[in-house]
Amino acid sequence: MMAVLIANLTQRKHVKHGNRKRLATLWVAGILLFLQVELVLIQHLELSDMFLIPAFIFALALFYPLRAKIFIFKIKCVNCNEKMSYKRVIYWDNNLCDNCQPETEEEKKAAAVAAVQDKKFPENPDTVEEVDWDVWEPKETAVICYIFKDDKVLLINKKTGLGEGKVNAPGGRIEPAEMAVDAAVREVQEETGLTPLNLKEVGQLSFIFKDGYSLKGIVYFADGCTGDMTETDEADPFWQPVDEIPYDKMWVDDKLWLPLAMNGKYINGHFIFDGDNMLSQEIEESKR
Predict the structure, then answer these.
(1) Which domain holds residue 7?
(2) Which ranges of the chain have pLDDT less than 70?
């Protein structure tokens, strides 16, 4: 009887789709309680074992008219005859398996929301048009900082991490609770030994890679620096004439947006990459 009552308590959480089965377990518990009372009385009054027969008959007399309300638990789906899960057997009145169960209103709403989310956040987009960039969230956010001085720009030969072996500007991921501009200064210091001056945000670049990685980069320009340039484990820095930037050794998107930024435009770029191969791109420019 205790097992039946425990089952009934768990059924209360599923009353929306299993109220008949919840009542069935209550009827079973009630009949078992009646039978237990009879047996206790027989034992307490020290009656003959012959009284067990009428006790069971009385219990059956209660059970018989309630049989239609009690025998509603099915092991197999009434639609496809497949064996059902324990939850479907105990909690669901319609005795349908997961495959045959019609969608509830809540499930329909959840599916509609999921469809919208799939449209906004496709798992593996091929084009920038597939992504709702207004609500897109990257897995990581990073900064990159170009220092300009005497018609030259500071670049690095990147030794580690994303873009290893390419020419780029100093930069890296933003640490928790760190401001983007502070991260830009820190990354330049860590990679080159220099401290950039008068940083100005000139654009944001959003990248989705086919392997599942995604990144948003905030781009800064600096008009000077202090300190002594030093090669580090992460980067080999060098000064390059602005009109001789080696785009052929850089990420392919750099030659699309960097000249615009150097001409005074604020850049908002979106890119889809498969490894080093750029599949799709769009660049929006505005005045700074």
Answers:
(1) 2-103
(2) 1-18, 92, 102-122
